[in-house]
Amino acid sequence: MASEVIELSGHIIDSWTLPRAWDVIMDRGGNFAVEEMRVGTSKTEPSYARLKVVAPDDETLELILSELQQFGAVLLHGNDVQTATVEQDGVLPAKFYSTTNLPTQVRLNGQWVTVENIEMDVAVVIDKDSNRAYSKPMHEVRVGEQVVIGHDGIRVQPFERARERESFAFMQSSVSSEKVKVLAIHEIARQMKATREHGGKILFVLGPAVIHTGAGRYVAELLRRGYVQVIFGGNAIVTHDVESALFGTSLGVDLRSGEQVEGGHRNHLRAINAIRAVGSLEKAMEIGLLREGITYEALKHNITMVLAGSIRDDGPMPGVINDMQEAQKHMRQALPGVEMAIIVASMLHAIATGNLLPATVRTVVVDINPAVVTKLADRGSFQAAGLVTDAELFLRELLEALA
Amino acid sequence: MASEVIELSGHIIDSWTLPRAWDVIMDRGGNFAVEEMRVGTSKTEPSYARLKVVAPDDETLELILSELQQFGAVLLHGNDVQTATVEQDGVLPAKFYSTTNLPTQVRLNGQWVTVENIEMDVAVVIDKDSNRAYSKPMHEVRVGEQVVIGHDGIRVQPFERARERESFAFMQSSVSSEKVKVLAIHEIARQMKATREHGGKILFVLGPAVIHTGAGRYVAELLRRGYVQVIFGGNAIVTHDVESALFGTSLGVDLRSGEQVEGGHRNHLRAINAIRAVGSLEKAMEIGLLREGITYEALKHNITMVLAGSIRDDGPMPGVINDMQEAQKHMRQALPGVEMAIIVASMLHAIATGNLLPATVRTVVVDINPAVVTKLADRGSFQAAGLVTDAELFLRELLEALA
Amino acid sequence: MASEVIELSGHIIDSWTLPRAWDVIMDRGGNFAVEEMRVGTSKTEPSYARLKVVAPDDETLELILSELQQFGAVLLHGNDVQTATVEQDGVLPAKFYSTTNLPTQVRLNGQWVTVENIEMDVAVVIDKDSNRAYSKPMHEVRVGEQVVIGHDGIRVQPFERARERESFAFMQSSVSSEKVKVLAIHEIARQMKATREHGGKILFVLGPAVIHTGAGRYVAELLRRGYVQVIFGGNAIVTHDVESALFGTSLGVDLRSGEQVEGGHRNHLRAINAIRAVGSLEKAMEIGLLREGITYEALKHNITMVLAGSIRDDGPMPGVINDMQEAQKHMRQALPGVEMAIIVASMLHAIATGNLLPATVRTVVVDINPAVVTKLADRGSFQAAGLVTDAELFLRELLEALA
Amino acid sequence: MASEVIELSGHIIDSWTLPRAWDVIMDRGGNFAVEEMRVGTSKTEPSYARLKVVAPDDETLELILSELQQFGAVLLHGNDVQTATVEQDGVLPAKFYSTTNLPTQVRLNGQWVTVENIEMDVAVVIDKDSNRAYSKPMHEVRVGEQVVIGHDGIRVQPFERARERESFAFMQSSVSSEKVKVLAIHEIARQMKATREHGGKILFVLGPAVIHTGAGRYVAELLRRGYVQVIFGGNAIVTHDVESALFGTSLGVDLRSGEQVEGGHRNHLRAINAIRAVGSLEKAMEIGLLREGITYEALKHNITMVLAGSIRDDGPMPGVINDMQEAQKHMRQALPGVEMAIIVASMLHAIATGNLLPATVRTVVVDINPAVVTKLADRGSFQAAGLVTDAELFLRELLEALA
């Protein structure tokens, strides 16, 4: 039998950290004894548990400990973080540590150092000279870099539910359209205001249905009012936004009458062609071709807009990044300072963004399809709150709630 | 080879009546020759076609003619309607004619007589003395009644799309959440106003999600403003409506805070029990126990409310009709005068109502689940327009649009 | 400050009983101290915890205790169960105790007595003479009966997850179509065999899509092989089953060719009419009119079949129960001995059945729509495992797995 | 008033070409007179109609004619196709003609010439020297090329429904899970066999759920049996396929037991890293690291596999094309010879493929989510037949049907 003593502390009772830890131990075939347990007696006081974890063999113990780490478990007698050297560009050492999106620290020379720019499913590179640690995607590591391996000296700060009534309370509950959404929308508005008051950035991730439903005008207004600092989207949203600015249609449907005014998809191709002809979206604004819409407002107010291509794109529209690694890089660069993310009507970009966002960013996923909303949570973005509702009416209501 | 000459007239081009007729003829293995065809030269002028339908045998011809009938085809040389006598209560003669929900006439003594209270999938009973024809569900026919059989002497008025731009234009298009719904909601509001102006009744069919999402207040306001003349619902909506009036919760969730204030389902049982204790919903209002909500407003304004039970009901709440045939009967009795039906968040009652509504009633099905919306159309309610959107935000927006 | 000491025992760690208890205490504004905690050291050994629960006032404490009860908490110093007398037929005493679907005991004269026929959301009646307790729906209580009130002397056995690897392991995980369903189907088959080996009954709840998709033949074969002891369904499934037996169609679609062979819905009305003409389904079998299908096999093998009507029914088919309270009563009477329930493609009957089933019945909900699957769990049927898959292919595969 | 005489010929009655043409004329505010109309008297004989189209002004007439063209209308007195010269790389002339996915011909020197490699939403380039016409995406046109503009001299062959009973009959009907899918699967199998017998290629487009559900083995077997000539997919399917080959898991779930064997997403990162370490998938097969799975079989049998990256990718896996224009180019190059496309469980790749496929390729979209299935048809891929069913059970059944 192999064993190890671990400590858990913080809001481990009300954040379900402790029971989830027990679950992991038992599911993996281990057992435990509670050596000490103190429940915080006030809402702000943390709790503490010290457990002796027992497993039938070293390998099982190792597996258990690596999973407990995700809940914030720390070995009682810990060592410094271990690293291995990258020997091939874009290839990690065999036992590489794969990150979660939770705040993470590594022990360097006995000191806990925070991993910079944490995101999910990437490696941690250690710069021993400057005593820094930062996350890096697999394909970006270079020969000679020191990459964290194994599980020693790593501390993850689990996603905690404060005992104090959470302002994003609706987020805790299960996904359903049968909820009072107006309440949730007002709560989101309140959070957006609070975020902007202390200078935090708000990211909007937008799918093309925002334009098709005529809700582009609400987003444009949000931009004008300063509630959007970063936009992530694809070729479709920018194309239909420009189509609506140039021709008043989206996929050929007149946004004022709801009627199909043009056979087939020609208008969106015309929109792309028109911008290609002048060279860029910026130029189109400059010469007065582009006079309204989300893209126009974003350019005018100097909002960072990362447009990532996809395999289904027509055109593409100038400004859309066609290389996926390049696009991810631009998305990563736009994230520092983002404290809130509102993802509307986009499955592909929702997942892409969820992969990159640290768990500390308050994230709201709005989609009429419950599958999109649950998918994000399933993929590890625990912090994402879902709202199963109509994108168009959501944005309209949000704008009113912010007034 | 068997053959017959038929005539089609009306908006048979733009309502797709003619091509659908051709389709049927060919799908069933027949063929046709266009003997005469006149296309109306102005928007209001009807078109006309006379076709010779040929089939390999009499049986196929019979099948083809019976289907063409649904599109309004009339035999060039027609006979009076044929009937057979009911010989067993609740049992139809073998060759009974089964109705559609389209306006239907039968030829009695050479005269076209309109079938009263037409609905889908029922029989037509002929009262020869009074020269009347009316629809009757199978289980209500009585020994001695004359029931229409075969296909002679029956004329169905197909669902026509006027060539004039349709005010319910959004209804023609396919179901999708990616449409400008605010436009459609304003169009519905306009139709509701027009309906009320000339004294037409508006039916609301409501599912319990209306209460769970806090949208009961919007429906109550619609009732106060005179936009609801008939309500169809079940045990759940009335129970949660009363629960919210008595305790401020729906399924135990506080409608003002969105929080679960009560463990499990106890409040809705308490609501039912409280009404059972006083005897009826009417009594509860009278003694001041019930002071708000949809049911309260309906009782106060003397709105017909048919509450039909179902196999999943708790309680039930007094006033809910537990016998299904009895409930259908009450629903049928409430329909005369109804010109518009708004069905919100209820699959079961949507289908039940769709079965009873004549095709001439403008019907809007609002549900966040596209399956509900398409299901009604699949079942023969062609006239039903679908809106895939959030029930709560729809009702809120509708109320604003009516202001 | 009010306080009380409670005990929890059993698989309270791995069944998440303990953390859920803590959650409730804190969510309701209370606090607790762990007075004693013993974790079972082997897989079969139970764990134990004694907690002192503290709340700001008596009312809050009462609320907390009543919720803890659902998790199996027992007051250290408990009293006998309290009752009040029914004073009006069909009306419960104000503070009535509302059941869960979990095994429940009440303390009578210091002894724990099991509540018979437990189901969700009903009352508990005490027969003091015979020292018995049984559940009863609200509308069935009669003047003079003793109904349990408050929370004293009630013990609920929470739904426990055995630490031993659960044979229905797939049931624990979240609902998704992106799972290996063949594995789950084989597991269900294994459980069905085991259930039948020791004489347990298996209930099938079936929606009409079973017939529309041509899967009726697989269910008929399951009946012949003795894997079905009880069937719950509605007017639609029996009607289309008879339609397919008589005419080879379901909703007019030929089940062998997939083609629409009959315009509109006439065949299912003809099927109902044919059975009405002979008087009953039994008679139809007797005279050789009904020769195959689910209903035929059920009648032939003397399988209990409860057919509950609904508001959307045509006909109805003889044998369908049109009074909802009557139908629920028949369903209740058919449940004793049922150990497994397979619910396929029926939202309405799934929920109705879920309301009546004790949590000890292994329940599998199979539907292509994830909303149906999650709805049951949301309504308190924790024991229900969901399989988001195709009903037709599921039944075909299940039959193969049982071979 | 402006007018023009057009001709329509072929299966214009049973393919609804004629009524759809009438609809367009009236919707756009025009009118028409039927100058001549001949209905084919046998199943194989084409029909013919000559219409005089009238519109209030030239612009409206132009719009109407351009839409009628999609249905195969040809001007009675036609001219040669018109072109304009590309003056900027990647930018089309203002009045560029935008293609449909239907077979298209252009009139060059009075001769009808077929446009090569037709696909949706691209331009047509004319090479006058060689008398050829071919389709080209906007971003690929180069200065000096002659691009088709306007609507003269263009003939589109509409999607015809043969009067003969269609072998893909199930495809004509609306999307629903409530159909006999086993029939449809056997029909697909029959078509696949027929396609292979005359050397046609079959394309499979696969989403990662194919691997997650354990259905990779069925696809691998299809590959071995020669039923797959081209595969389109993304980073996810190849990554999880390799993960399952190397570790027996998909997203960390053991495909034999259904249990989560590994915390989080580490195994798929390990799989990518392992292939990156050896350099390529080909090398991994060569050295015996990759010994089974879809990718292995594809490499072994020399199957074309186009793997297109996306913004949500981890890694990426070597072999995945990260530039979207490059990826589309590879997809285009793989299409010649493809006569059938089976798209399973992938929304993104389904739409991307639908954009590139000519309408003559028989396309089946299989997804458990009806939205995916309808989305493709909404976007203009009329020829796509949908099957709302479980991908895993579909592939298992398809394999059996092909045996």
Folded structure, characterized:
The structure is a homotetramer of 403-residue chains. With 403 residues, chain A is α/β, with parallel strands linked by helices. Chain A has 13 helices and 19 strands. Chain A has helices spanning 17-27, 58-69, 181-197, 209-212, 216-224, 235-247, 266-278, 281-286, 294-300, 324-334, 347-356, 370-378, 391-402; strands at 2-10, 31-38, 47-55, 74-75, 82-85, 104-108, 111-116, 123-127, 132-136, 146-149, 154-156, 201-206, 230-234, 249-250, 253-254, 304-308, 338-344, 362-367, 384-388. In chain A, α3 (181-197) crosses α13 (391-402), α6 (235-247) crosses α7 (266-278) and α11 (347-356) packs parallel to α12. The termini of chain A are far apart. Chains in contact: A-B, A-C, A-D, B-C, B-D, C-D.
